[in-house]
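seq as requested:
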Amino acid sequence: MKRIVTILFLAMTLLSATGCKQKAKYVFLFIGDGMGFGAVSVTETYLAQTDSTAIGMGKLAFSDFPVMGAAATFSANRQRTDSAAGGSALSAGEKVNNDSICISPEGDTLTSITYKLHDAGYKIGIAATVCIDHATPAAFFGRNCARGNYYEIGSQLADTGFEFFGGGDFNRPYQAQPDCFAKAQDAGYSIAYGREEFAAKKGDGKVIFFQKRDTTHATNQLPTRLERIQRANPDDITLKELVTGAIDVLDNPKGFFVMAEGSMIDWAAHSNDVAGLVNETIDMSDAIEVALEFYKKHPKNTLIVVTADHETGGPACNKPTLSKIRAICEPAGETNVDNYMSGEQNNSDISKMAGIGWTAGSHTADRVPVYAIGAGSEMFSGEMDNTDIPRKICEAMGVEF
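struct tokens:
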């Protein structure tokens, strides 16, 4: 009798460990371009001030995720990766040379997990706050030996069959014929400029959601958070809206995968721009809130992963002057948005005023954070390589890598 009970116990344990584990059916991968541990720390220091806390750390949407890890980001040929190689590692799970989009050092074409998941029946969405054919988003649908070949990369979007794309625009759509818009439309994509057009077209099956064009803003990127405050333009869209739009288009019983990039964290860090760094990190956090709300409705089979393609700038709270950090990062404070956007204030002086230090104006070789919540999130704990992340996502979704 004792032996029978033991066997039954072992059988139940085995079933609970294997047969009852929930697969991730809805997956969000958020990539903060250039967002290292320092960017998170500086932003959380600022957020503590908005909560009227004299000393402490505030909370981003992902601050309390139950799983946290760190990923190495070196490329195949450099200790310091760029976004093309970093994005390719997160997309295809292989190291490539800097400047390459999913092309191995030997010249072989690599396959992004987006194609693997699409073949398995999952719908796919790709969004970014810059042009959709920029290095990191491009790594999730394109292949090219040079990230700067925007027309060639943008032309590949039409061939994917993925259901949702969102961002600023194509970068060089008319470099050759047929142009990127014509190719996409011939492949059955509806192109929506602005939220009104998107609302009318989001039921069309395959949709591209771009920032509405105007004459006062670059057409190949979304306005930054600070620019939106300055412009007060009701047509400006956000990464949060792109993620919401992706869910509207993709949500189905089989499941979906969304990659959303907070692209301009990197641009702010390259300029050692404290206010830009903080505001763009908050902007991505706002988009993650949308995924969290979805997770709360589907907690057993939703996975959210937040990481970065690389670290930029090496920011750190050196001797932070807390009131100055708050004033600098809020446009109504000492650094008002008109002066900030016109470049009348020097980023170096602003950083010194806030007590924020920088180690570089370029990418660094530092590890980047990995945060996770939901089905399969336990796999993202501890140290890993960036190439492990897409492999772990596939494992969580039950799809062979």
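Confidence is low (pLDDT under 50) at residues 5-19, 333-344.
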